[in-house]
Amino acid sequence: MKKKLFILLLSGFLSQNIYADDFEVYLTATKIDHGNTLPGETKTPIRPLRGILSNHELTFNLIFDDLIPVELIDEEDNIVYTTWLMPGETTLTLPSSFTGLFTLRLTIGAFYFLGDIVL
C-alpha cells in the first residue's frame, strides 16, 4: 500500500513540468474600490492567479480574454515597468535587466492581482 501511494505521489510530482529553475508565483486578489458591495455582486473570495516563473518569463494558468495592464513595482513602491497582456496571451516576458525583489500587479476588472517575484 505504501509503495502504491509513493508511486502515485511521485508520478503526480513529475507530471507538473516544473523544472529546477522554475518558481510558482501566486497573485492574490484585492478589490480596487473598497466601497459597499452592490446588490447581486458576489462576496466570495477570488481565486488567486497561479503562474510559473522561469528566468524572466511568467506563464499563467489561464488565457486572458481582455487587455490586461501589468505593472512591476520595486521595493520603494515605484512603478519601474509597465506593459500589457494581450487577449489570448498566457506568457509575460519581463526585461532581463531587472533583478531583485519586485511586486507584480495585474489589473483585471475591479481587482488588483498582486504577488512578489524575485528576478
Low-confidence stretches: 4-20
Instruction: State Rg.
Output: 17 Å
What form results from the Cα inertia axes?
A: globular
Compute the average pLDDT.
81
Please tell me about this protein's structure.
- With 119 residues, the protein is mainly β.
- The protein has one helix and eight strands; from the N terminus they run αββββββββ.
- It has one helix spanning 2-14, and strands at residues 22-31, 49-54, 57-60, 68-73, 79-85, 91-93, 101-108, 111-118.
- Strands 5-4-7-8-1-2-3-6 form an eight-stranded antiparallel β-sheet, with no helix packed on it.
- Strand 7 (101-108) and strand 8 form a beta hairpin.
- The longest helix is centred in the N-terminal third of the chain and has 13 residues, at 2-14.
- The radius of gyration is 17 Å and the shape is globular.
- The N and C termini lie far apart (42 Å).
- The model is unreliable at 4-20 (pLDDT under 50).
